[in-house]
Design a protein that fits this description.
By secondary structure, the chain is of the alpha+beta class. Helices cover 45% and strands 13% of the residues.
Length: 407
């Protein structure tokens, strides 16, 4: 990958940087800014901010113009993510599923009618999406999905349950993976529906997290009628389409993650210089210097994994198994990074920001880090994908010694 940017890309970077500087919410990044705490506050704030991005044309930069995007390159999209991260601008929150998962999947597998119906409304924030994949007994084993969709004339009748569905109680549409054929191998009998979340028979129930927020839901489907026109692609091809969704979830925004973690790393170094232990700053304490050095090295590694991922996308047109490598590394690194931050902050790090402790700002990140090794595919699943599809290792039964023959 050529890490140099063209004059046009450099000019584009300056354009984005100037826009962000002129449009950040008033007081953003200063002690005077009151950051949203609850999910409801974050939702209201994110709707306003992401609407502003959409109106300025920063949503779906690399999407075709016919569907409301700018029709520019993937590199322009990456530059946008980098500048947003470098400026510490608010992250895409409520429209994450729509922009990063629903849009790319519909573009890859949807009909022209579906593309024209759904894509523009994702970009202008008219409709919010959620992802109905995981179930109580089919999280890591996604092929074991049991939510059923039975074709009845021009409608599917859907019954089942989903869990850990982000934004389900505020979403307008759902990417629903369901079983349409139980007579074939598990991954061959799945179909992919685009479901109106306002349909009769859908009941989202928010789940309270360790952070005290409730952005995830369990969702119950009882005799929900879904028009056949809302089937994505072909019947029983849902496993293929789901992999497109997951590849996008694990891939393109990765470079921005490493920039935001570099920001957090710099904050951690500043905190380590101010925090005293045993009469010396934590930054000079032998018990912490190795951990700080490791955190620095791991963020650097994350950056180069990101470059490798982008190279794969540029060569192949879509993210591949490199997305699993990036996701596995990132989520495991997050745990170690947040554990270091809490160790440096000490007991004060477990308190909320309003309690007045400098370490309190690390509380939410540490609490959320437990979920990162599960979200977008658990670490165990990523290891299986890497071993089979990257390393070419055989998939078989667990080895056990053969019993000795009697003489």
């Amino acid at each position: 990958m050529d890490l140099a940017f063209s004059p046009e890309e450099t000019a584009f970077r300056h354009e984005i940087s100037a826009w962000i500087r002129d449009n950040l919410p008033a007081g953003w990044g200063t002690p005077e800014f009151k950051e949203p705490k609850t999910f409801e506050e974050r939702l209201e704030f994110s709707r306003a901010w992401e609407k502003r991005l959409a109106e300025a044309g920063w949503a779906g930069i690399s999407w075709p113009k016919d569907y409301g995007g700018r029709g520019t390159t993937l590199m322009d999209q990456i530059i946008f993510h980098e500048e947003m991260a470098a400026a510490r601008a608010p992250q895409i929150f409520i429209n994450f599923v729509g922009i990063n998962l629903a849009g790319p999947t519909i573009m890859a597998h949807g009909s022209e009618q579906q593309k024209k119906r759904y894509l523009p409304k994702i970009l202008d924030m008219s409709e919010v999406w959620c992802q109905g994949f995981s179930e109580p007994n089919a999280g890591s084993d996604l092929a074991n999905v049991q939510t059923k969709a039975v074709l009845d004339g021009d409608n599917f009748i859907v019954n089942g349950q989903k869990i850990w569905t982000s934004f389900a109680h505020v979403a307008d549409w759902c990417l629903l993976l369901c079983r349409t054929d139980s007579s074939v191998a598990k991954h061959k009998g799945l179909s992919y529906l685009l479901v109106d979340m306002h349909s009769a028979g859908i009941e989202p129930r928010p789940l309270k997290q360790i952070t005290g927020e409730a952005e995830f839901d369990e969702v119950f489907f009882t005799d929900v009628r879904v028009p056949r026109a809302q089937l994505l692609g072909e019947m029983n091809m849902g496993w293929t389409y789901a992999n497109t969704t997951l590849a996008n979830e694990r891939g393109p925004a990765f470079l921005a993650h490493q920039i935001r973690f570099r920001n957090s790393l710099n904050d951690l170094f500043d905190s380590a210089k101010r925090t005293m232990r045993d009469g010396v700053p934590v930054a000079e304490h032998p018990a912490f210097r190795d951990r700080l050095a490791r955190a620095y090295a791991e963020v650097e590694i994350m950056r180069y994994i990101g470059y490798r991922l982008v190279t794969s996308i540029l060569r192949n047109g879509r993210p591949g198994v490199e997305g699993s490598i990036a996701k596995l590394y990132w989520s495991e690194m997050v745990r170690r990074f947040q554990e270091t931050s809490i160790a440096i902050a000490g007991l004060g790090g477990m308190l909320d920001d309003e309690d007045g402790f400098d370490g309190g700002k690390w509380n939410r990140g540490f609490s959320m880090s437990f979920a990162q090794t599960i979200a977008a595919g658990s670490s165990e699943i990523q290891k299986n994908i890497i071993s089979e599809r990257v390393l070419g290792m055989p998939r078989g039964e667990v080895w056990a010694p053969k019993p000795k023959e009697k003489v």
